[in-house]
Amino acid sequence: MNTLQKKTNAFDFFSGLDIFTVLTALAASAYGLSLVYSATYYSLSDGEIISRQLLAMLITVAGGIVIALALSVINYEFISKLWPVIAAGCIILMIVTFFFGVAPSDRTSAKSWLQIGSFTLQSSEIMKVGFIISFSYHLDMVKDKINKIKTIIPLVIHGLIPIALVILTGDAGSALIFLIMFIGMLFMARINIGYFIAGFCALIVGFMVAWRTNLISGIQRQRIVALFYPEHYEDVMYQQNNAKIAIGSGGWFGQGFLQGRMTQTHRVPENQNDFVLSVAGEELGFVGAMAVILLLAVLIIRVFSAGLKARDNVGYLMCMGVGIMLLAQTFVNVGMELSLLPCIGITLPLFSSGGSSSLSIYLALGIVLSVYRYSKNQTKSLFYSD
């Protein structure tokens, strides 16, 4: 390959790449890495430069970026046609996790992680991407008869399978995100409103039955009740109450990077992970916290925009699925940190230290970048042709 060909290939790659979305994701990850560094700074031993959590996040972010850029040149239509392999692989991964998964010391019932050497993989995070791909293809296949009952039943089964598998591993938080993704993608596929009303009623009845029959565990019940009676559940609300105090104590511009009193004394457990927004709020103030929200808002808007410009229905649905996933996780995480929602262990996209979460989000963004490229250029890749 001569120099001219190399320059042409490089130009083709970058001309079809959604640079703004990539830069937004990179900015969010860089900001997230700095917050995780501050959150884990207090725990560094003499001679240590970075924490294990930060190292794992660095590795997964770097790997995720490479994977996203690689996926961007693969035609998303080819990826969607691999849905049987992807779905089967995700189901097998969840089954293996159910039997051989490990749980954190404070949540022994949540066997949601697979131990791989010195790292752990949260299987449900990978399954989110698999579900978006398989469900998008399923919805596209039945788009001409989407509102017939014989179409709706298989779609409901498709949505319930990952939810059930995730619940079996004890990860109620991820099950909620799957439910929101499922409902959101059905809405984007223009399902008749009557089905949503029926589904909402079924959810209410199901929740009431689960509550009365103790299918909802004791700690989960306490976290829900504690939102309404926090003074009676101070131990349950300890993490969320301190997160609110940390965010509120930052004022407009914060107490300074690495200077947060609650952050640096570990008064907010898991502030490198699920409660990372409290670090931004305390040390960088309202401005720093709003910068987090703004970056995520811009990224989500770009994802939805790519979907609206997609050249076909499956590309549109894939982007809608990714956008809904990011929006749901952001909404639930911020709601948790402000004590508006119960604490259910949901990471803040690209900001929390969870390596599995960062990896799955970059996988999903890779698909969005593919939709953008092939909808913009109307070209074929080496991996697919009609």
UniProtKB/TrEMBL annotation:
Localisation per UniProt entry: Membrane
Biological-process GO terms, alphabetical: cell division; regulation of cell shape
Keyword Transmembrane on entry: yes
Its membrane topology: Multi-pass membrane protein
Record's keyword annotation contains Membrane: yes
One term under GO cellular component: plasma membrane
GO molecular function: lipid-linked peptidoglycan transporter activity
Keywords in alphabetical order: Cell shape, Membrane, Transmembrane, Transmembrane helix
Transmembrane segments: 20-42, 54-76, 82-104, 159-186, 193-211, 284-304, 316-336, 348-372
Alphabetical list of InterPro entries matching this protein: FtsW/RodA
Organism domain of life: Bacteria
PANTHER family on file: CELL CYCLE PROTEIN, PEPTIDOGLYCAN GLYCOSYLTRANSFERASE MRDB
UniProt protein name: FtsW/RodA/SpoVE family cell cycle protein
Biological classification of the source: Bacteria, Bacillati, Bacillota, Clostridia, Eubacteriales
